[in-house]
Amino acid sequence: EYDGERNSEGERHGRGKAFLPNGDIYDGEYERGFRSGQGTYRFRNGACYIGKYLLNKKHGRGIFFYPDGSKYEGDWVNDQRHGHGVYTYANGDTYTGEWFNHNRHGQGRYIYKDTGAIYVGGWVNGNQEGEAELIYLNHRFRGKFLNGNPVGRGKYIFDIGCEQHGEYIDSEQDKGEVEEEEEPSFLGAPKWKASEITKLTLWTPHGEKTPSPREASQV
To answer: Is the whole-model pTM more than 0.85?
Structure first.
């Protein structure tokens, strides 16, 4: 059922409201029979999209309210979250950053509501990956991530004025050293192996300057 404007050829064109057979409702702009322009689409399951359309697909800026209470506000391309946007999850976490083909992809900031921790850095196909900083209440970790876990060399920076350098290694690498009576670590969870503690690294236009061994020994 459709109630709205049509062009001379009888196509839906202009402003209109459509009641779809599956129970969904669209109220917005049409162009030559297609949802195109600004509109509101209410899904039977309780979801709702308010934003731009092009040829029946979400395209441009828009807000999508999901049935579980989560929400995405940002760019859409060809029915996919694509570009820049903010996703507020049902548990209160938020992601602000780049999207590619419906996934978090590029640079973004993820805030964990329960702990207040903040991840700032790279994402690949929805997973934390690349150079990043994980910020906690009184310290932060700076290094690389892969599939949501820290990997390789990095450092913890403490607000009291020192850094702990080290690296994350695959827990399977040193499982031979673990005694049988010890509880096994989570499968695949990387373990932090500290190497040294230094003063805060000085930043220069040429990058980071690591303190000399003498300076480090004074910490």
So the answer is: no
